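The aim of this short unit is practical: by the end, you should be able to scan a pair of folded records and say something sensible about each. We start with the first protein, listed as its amino acid sequence and then its structure tokens.
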Amino acid sequence: MKVVIQCAVFLFMISVVATPADARVLEKIYGVVNGETITLTEIRSYQKKLKEGGFLNDLLFSDPAERQKALEEREYLLKLLVDEKIMDYEVKKNGLLVTEERVEKEIGTIAKRQNLSTKQLRQTLTSQGVNYAEYRDFVKKSIERRQLVEREITSKIKISEQDIVSHYLSKNNTSKTQIFEFNIAHVLLPEKANEKAKEALAKLNSGTSFEKVVETYSVDDDSKTKGGQFGAFKSGEMIASIEKAIAPLKIGESSSIVKTPMGLHIFKVLDKKLVKDPAIERQKQAIYQQLFGQAFKEQLTFWLIQKRKDAIIQINKS
């Protein structure tokens, strides 16, 4: 990084009017980044936005604690401003500046999302004490920086299916990525019909078809005409006693008598296949967002470090 550090006094921009006695300081300059200044006014404006929740480059604030840090530490705030200057320099360097028409179109889109016209949005901002010119500048820079980030960082981040699965396994201390899905049928008898249940089981063991036993013994009228069809379930979705009974069975095999709150059952496995763990599927999007966010922060930090090395940065540290 090409850095020049001023340690003794502030740098000043001075306007001289008539005689040296009339010289007055227009602005204190705390730093220069690739020819762009960081002024006292800019620092104070940034601090005000941090305190009041004004429009800021959220790309640099992945953690709310960083806002407080910027308020408390002048050096950290200067670092953020340097990073913004670098991003804006790279926008210009890569020809990513946007037109006024593009800015107006974006503002129109923002207004539409809030069910407002552009005029109404402007009136709303004004009523909230927001300078519309500053808002337009914020929107313009946001579009440009978003384009830069997409080109330099976001487009290069790849989160694979295996990355998601590996993260889930490590967080849940398991090596299971697949589970069984069972399609099962049953014979249902009343809870106290133990003898009838044993009789039905004996019929099955002697070779009577499951469908015939269902027809003769089952009290589940809804499934009787469907061969006792009970449904398809994945591991973890069934009552523990049912899952324990059918887990070791192969396709076509039947269980012993199983007691549940519904009564007494004899189950038959109609189909059994390995499927993706639904717990992983349910969390996939959340895990993706988490991994992407981590990768984005790391890549943005690395990218800024590399760009600082190439930049000409002059900072007053007094």
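Turning to the second protein, read its sequence before its tokens, just as you did above.
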Amino acid sequence: MSDNLLRPRRSVLYMPGANERALEKAKGIDADALILDLEDAVSPDAKPEARDRVVAAVRSGEYGHRELAIRINGIGTEWHEADLAAAGAAGPDAVLVPKVNSAEEVLQLVAGLEAAGAPDTTQLWAMIETPVALLHAEEICAAHERLTVIVMGTNDVVNETYGLHVPGRNPLVLTALSLSLLAARAAGKVIIDGVYNDVKNLESFDAEARQGREMGFDGKTLIHPSQVEPANVAFAPSEEDIEHAQEMIRAFDEAKAAGQGVVTFNGRMVEELHIRDAHRILAFAEAIASR
């Protein structure tokens, strides 16, 4: 499994790029990744100043283990080209682009990053959040190796399909999540679940985060620091998970060494795929511990 797939991104917190106090506070929040936002969180008249502030934050080197992504304004907006050039030149861990609708747009964005002098370490992250993108998710995910992370824009999915926000998420949102997850996995990309809007309802947030983990997502985007710790817990292997993986690997290795054809552990058949998953769990737990 690639290092990118193992890098912890359990909690990915949006921070408003125009808010200097928020950017300072983010240095002490235990999120795996921060998205310094120039899009929805910034009013039109504040976008140029926010761009400068976010670039300075990235260049400060004061965010420790936290992966830093800059969310720029989308293709076709009046701020897009300046955002892309400034973000690429700043060299963050990633540049996140909203409403990416095609493989051609991915290639356009990669060319823009390269023209801006973005270092090879700056990844492209793309948001899938429109019906067009969902119908072309596989092409988007496979378009270029610089695209490493898919971020779900579930609020926009609900908005553009005229759906409703309901507990457990409506069937069309679940379909959108599933299609995007399959596309990301087919292309070997990381995929992050969308936001949960009711910041005061941590019980329902926890349920949605665990739903995302059960579906196979790598983490969740967040809109408030109070959501960080529940997301970190939901998307991390528990102590029980780690112990179970270790014991299953040990039992499998001993059974194979003894020449057993069919291996069982705790009464269940164990195959190579189960052992691969157990090794993935242990490798991810190690990556979290060494973060």
